[in-house]
Amino acid sequence: MGSPIDHSLSPIIHNSFAAQHDLSIKYDKIFADEKIFDDVFASFISSGGIGANITSPLKEYVFAKFSNLTDRCRHANSVNTLTCKDKKLILADNTDGIGFIRDIGNNNIPITNKNILILGAGGAARGILRPILGLSPKKVSIANRTKPRAVELVNYFKVWGKVRYVSYRELRAKRFDVIINATSSGLYGELPSLPDRFSADETYCYDMNYGNAAKPFVSWASANNALQIVDGLGMLVEQAAESFWVWNNLKVNTDIVIKDLRNTQLANA
């Protein structure tokens, strides 16, 4: 559920998961914005729906509507997974963080005792901060166009580890082990306010976007000779796998789904 929704790969992903278990499901794209969400969700529940994914920009809006939230949902301050039973909502969850952690693990990107830079201080950054701190990095720096938003995250998450704000102007003189792009700049074909030249030859670069939206940051990382560059397609599939498990109590092979999407849906991106 969300708006826009046409671009979503979720139906392909979830139907691929279901096929691995010979499971018959109905997973559709459902348009919903803030004005009609209540009616759309009520209709979904009354029709017997058991689970729904929420996409941007509704994640924070839906979070504010429900009280039966998981801890990871509260830390993220947003919802991406709703579970229903007997035509009632029983749980609001967020699987983005675990999806991110699984994907960086799949790609052997180290976090423990490393200096991490997160670009952006919006919902995407917030959704991964608690899981990252759970892996005991040496330090997490948050760069954002506006300082107050980043400081808000620092103040909330500092109880779980060393987190600080850093301005984009300061980045040229610093080195990081891992850089994570959690901004939406790529959706507009733009790059965060990064220095043109940056010492990244020993840096893992990860973009939470995928497809065309990842191209600006991926190109920047490549131009600066990053040690490894990964986009967010794997995270998308891994967070979907967690939702699938929440609803069906079934594990899936995500690797074959990721490869299939790269060879088909993103081949010409």
Rg from alpha-carbon coordinates: 18 Å
Give the mean pLDDT.
94
What is the straight-line distance between the termini? 24 Å
CATH T-level topology of the largest domain: Rossmann fold
Proportion of β residues? 5-15%
Strand order of the largest sheet: 6-5-4-7-8-9
How many strand elements?
A: 9
In the CATH classification, which architecture of the largest domain applies? 3-Layer(aba) Sandwich
CATH homologous superfamily title of the largest domain = NAD(P)-binding Rossmann-like Domain
CATH domain class of the largest domain: Alpha Beta
How many structural domains does the protein architecture include? 2
Percent in helix: 25-40%
Q: Mind summarizing the main beta sheet?
A: 6 strands, parallel
Count of helical regions: 10
- Unreliable stretches (pLDDT < 50, length at least 5) are none
Q: What form results from the Cα inertia axes? A: globular
Oligomer: single chain
Helix/strand class: alpha/beta
What string, H for helix and E for strand, traces the elements in order? HHEHHEEHEHEHEEEHEHH
What's the layout of helices and strands?
Layout: H1 10-20, H2 37-46, E1 51-53, H3 59-63, H4 71-76, E2 81-85, E3 88-93, H5 96-106, E4 115-119, H6 123-133, E5 139-143, H7 147-157, E6 163-166, E7 178-181, E8 204-207, H8 215-223, E9 228-230, H9 233-248, H10 254-263
Parallel strand pairs: 4-5, 4-7, 5-6, 7-8, 8-9
Antiparallel strand pairs: 1-2, 2-3
Helix pairs in contact: 1-9, 5-6, 5-9, 9-10
Sum this structure up briefly:
The chain has helices spanning 10-20, 37-46, 59-63, 71-76, 96-106, 123-133, 147-157, 215-223, 233-248, 254-263, and strands at 51-53, 81-85, 88-93, 115-119, 139-143, 163-166, 178-181, 204-207, 228-230. It has 269 residues and is an alpha/beta fold.
